[in-house]
Design a protein that fits this description.
The chain has seven helices and no strands. By secondary structure, it is an all-alpha fold.
Amino acid sequence: YFNTPHSQQATMKTCTVASILALAASASAFAPAQQQKAARASQLSETKADLEALAEKSNPVLKYYDPLDLASTTIWGQSNEATIGFLRHAEIKHGRVAMAAFVGYIVQSNGITFPWPAVGGGVGTPTGSPLEQWDALPDAAKWQIILFIGFLEWFSEAAGTHYMRGGKPGQFPRFDEAKELIPHPVPIGSLYDPFGFHKNKSEEAKAAGLVKELNNGRLAQIGIIGFLAAQKVEGSVPLLKGVVSHYDGEPMAPFG
């Protein structure tokens, strides 16, 4: 998906839309309930103590850092554990979107595309920076991408055990375990692991992978915002001066 010229181009601004969807959604999704003790090893933090332990694994130098004291707050009248579940889930989701956007930006910027046009009707392959490529897409193509992301968001909130009710933050529910929510057959059972490559991974390996994903996602959020800022405000990111082209449009407006 992210290697087509137009979904790659979509990655840029669509990352913004997806992030808004991720943050605005009122919790509800991710992971069939896992009651076994073994599964607990890979379950992400639900208490402040869990967050402190996870922070030491993800950054042994900085360790636990919460200047806004978010881990002690509550939202929408929910418990502290439910609030932490929501915040953890939002961070993981934003990190994943940012990783896709960061890689997509680099791929698009280097002109890597499939040999066929991704949009019909004689539109062809837009050129220019990733932001300019997105602007060149027809509105119908943009809506197709945004609505697909919206479906994934809705499904993740409607299926499985909610991450604020004992589910694992960041775990996307399996399609084959919520068939009643999907109006037509889906060829894959899992969006995360469609070919089953990771089904035999130990809980320890999964836990280590989640820490790596968390760190990569945090860095990717900084990276993609750096690209956007450098294109819009020249000189705002000195290391990218002369590397990315100036953009006159509005990066945060998908139909601007």
